[in-house]
Design brief:
The chain contains one helix and no strands. It is an all-alpha fold.
């Protein structure tokens, strides 16, 4: 790999995505994107027996 031999060991990931949601509500799209990025970052899914806290309805502080 020529000039790459002088670089320290590393891992690079480039992710590109493009989509057009069918509705103005992009919640499910952003949740899927977030899940994918967390997976790529190495964050484990919730362990067995752990329950995620329920989400608050939008617009409530």
């Amino acid at each position: 790999f020529g000039t790459l031999s002088d670089r320290p060991n590393s891992i690079d990931i480039e992710l590109r995505a493009s989509w057009t949601p069918a509705t103005p509500d992009i919640t499910s799209h952003l949740e899927a994107w977030s899940d994918m990025v967390c997976t790529f970052a190495g964050l484990p899914p919730l362990p067995e027996g752990v329950t995620a806290l329920p989400r608050r309805p939008r617009g409530h502080a």
